[in-house]
Amino acid sequence: MKNNFKAWLKAAGIRAVKTFAQTAVALIGTELVGFTELDWLHIVSVAGVAAVLSLLTSVAGLPEVEGGNG
Fold it and tell me: What pTM did the predictor assign?
């Protein structure tokens, strides 16, 4: 059980980091201002919420983990 939780935590963490990065890239791409004029606080906060939602969604199960359940 403990190893299964570690595997789930690792897989869920990887997914959350990827979600964070994808969300940040999408937000950066939608800005019509220069790179130095981006609202970084807004980008990081929205991407952070997306990462938390990814973790919560992973509770339902991950195909990468044996059994698929968290």
Answer: 0.82
Q: What is the pLDDT of residues 5-16, one digit of tens each?
A: 899 999 999 999
**DSSP string across 1-70:** -HHHHHHHHHHHHHHHHHHHHHHHHHHHHH--S-GGGS-HHHHHHHHHHHHHHHHHHHTT--TTSTTS--
| Distance of alpha carbon 68 from alpha carbon 70, whole angstroms | 7
In the numeric block, which tokens belong to residue 24? 């940040």
User: By percentage, how much of the chain surpasses pLDDT 70?
Assistant: 84
CA-CA distances (angstroms) from residue 52 to 9, 29, 48?
A: 13, 22, 6
